[in-house]
Amino acid sequence: MKKHYEFPAVLTISCEDDTIYVDFPDLENCFSEGKDINKAIKHAKEALGNVLYWMEKDGNKIPEPSDICDIRIKDHQLKVTISVDMIKVRRSWQKKEEKIEIKK
After folding, report:
1. Mean pLDDT for each consecutive 10-residue tract of the chain (104 residues)?
2. What CATH number is given to the structural domain containing 10?
3. pTM for the full model?
C-alpha cells in the first residue's frame, strides 16, 4: 500500500448553479463538488482518499494515474492534480471503525 497518491482531476465550472464539479477520469465513481475552488478541491481530496481506501480494503487494483497532459478538457473546465496522504486517510477510517465497534 502506498503512502501517497496523486491523480488528475477535471474541474467543471457550472455557470447554471455556481458549482464546481470534480471528476477523476481514472477512477470510476470518484467525484465531488464545491461552491468555490477551495471547497471543490477539499471535497475532491476527501472523495479520492475514501475511494482509494475502500479499493485497498476490498483488494481492488488501483490504476496508474494518467498523464495530466493526455487529458482533454472542454470550455469551462480545468485539469489539476489532486494528492492524498493515505496514512491520514487510513487513520481516520480506523478511528471511525473503532467508534462503530465500541457502539456494538
Report:
1. 96 94 97 96 98 96 97 96 97 82 60
2. 3.30.160.250
3. 0.90
